[in-house]
Amino acid sequence: MRQDYAQLNARLRDILAREIESGAITTDERPEHVAGRLVAFVEGLAYHVLIGTHPADVARRQVLDSVDGLYDSR
User: What is the pTM (predicted TM-score) of this model?
Assistant: First the structure.
């Protein structure tokens, strides 16, 4: 599971790095920091969905809004 987490984080970091380099995302943060924050956010929401304290559809929308917000920061 740790390897899967590391792969997810690395893939997301690489995607973010490309998006930052292309100018699609504007941030002063390093891609690995943004990736780590997003993965932690998603994991936290997933936990609450699994224990039944947060609706899955709301969590999904929050994750998509967070990703969308990266592009709105220009």
Answer: 0.84
